[in-house]
Every structure is written in structure tokens, then in C-alpha cells.
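#structure-requests
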Amino acid sequence: MAPDPRSMAWQQDGELAPADLDALVHALQRVECDHNSAELQRLGQIDPPAGA
């Protein structure tokens, strides 16, 4: 089941909280075709903070 959008947390920088992003990507991967699922996984990877 997809996460409830009303309960998702946004960070101060405007990004979706990592746990909510992960849950959303996994929910979308379950319903998308293989090509889109792979792209969702790539987009859902969290980039390291700048300067790290």
C-alpha cells in the first residue's frame, strides 16, 4: 500500500524525508513496468550532501 501523502514529512530544504521518499519509491515500483521501476530506483537514490 502506498504511503499516505498527508503523513509524509518534508525537510527544511524542501526535500521529502528519506524514509518517506523510500516508501513512495517502493510503492511506485510495485505498480510500474520494469523500465520505469529501474528509473524510479535510480531517482530514489539519496545523493550525499554537498561537501561530504
